[in-house]
Amino acid sequence: MAQVVRRSVKPPLDYGPELVDQVRFVIAIAWFPLILTSFALSFGPAGIQASGFLGLFGALDRLGAAYNLIVVREFAPLVTAIVIAGVAGTAITADLGARVTREETSALDVLGVDPIKALVVPRLLALVFVSILFNIFALWAGLLGAVVVVAQNDAALGPFFASFFANATALELGASFVKVAVYGIVIATVCCYQGMNASGGPEGVGRAVNRAVVIAFLCIGAIDYVFTQLLLATNPILSQTR
């Protein structure tokens, strides 16, 4: 990771075209799974069950407060990380692993081109940028799922949004983007490392992809727990219902 940071700022900064290509590639393969998953989780396990429970007490207007916790704090960053790791991360690991087994990285070394700067840096920056962008998509898709749940229960949207914005804070939104950026950095580091260290031909590339997915998902779970606990411990106001 330290090598990537140093080489990303060391002139010449000639990885721009590759960075743009990687951003376009990740967006193209991951935007639909992200939106579909965000909407499905927001509408299904979150929305239907929460609305059914709150409806028993005639407090469906409190659904907005629940969605602040469900979408902004948890689901949007988590879904973004899972989709990025499962769709884009695996593709990056396979791509880099194939280049290594075909000795393309060795050829770059012979030509005087730094493989880390040429291949790893643009992919890491692309995953971080797309993770932040996809968090916005996940937030909108999650809120769309909430709107469908409210409409399904023949309730007014006004009380829902009043409760949502009464409980939402800029701190929580900012923390959501920080968390998803950390996810992007960790996922890119794991997947690039596994790809650049693949060996054993096509079989080795497949094993590298499997390792990358498992390690990335374990890291996602650990980061989610630690980050959330630190956020709540340092900002007790987030635990208060408003």
UniProtKB/TrEMBL annotation:
InterPro entries registered for this protein in UniProt: Permease_MalE
Keyword ATP-binding among UniProt keywords: no
One example GO MF annotation: phospholipid transporter activity
Taxonomic superkingdom: Bacteria
Cellular component aspect of the GO annotation: ATP-binding cassette (ABC) transporter complex
Transmembrane segments: 23-41, 78-98, 124-150, 180-196, 208-232
Residue stretches in coiled coil: none
Keyword annotations: Membrane, Transmembrane, Transmembrane helix
Classification via Pfam families: MlaE (PF02405)
Protein name per its UniProtKB record: ABC transporter substrate-binding protein
Highest classification ranks of the organism: Bacteria, Bacillati, Actinomycetota, Thermoleophilia, Solirubrobacterales
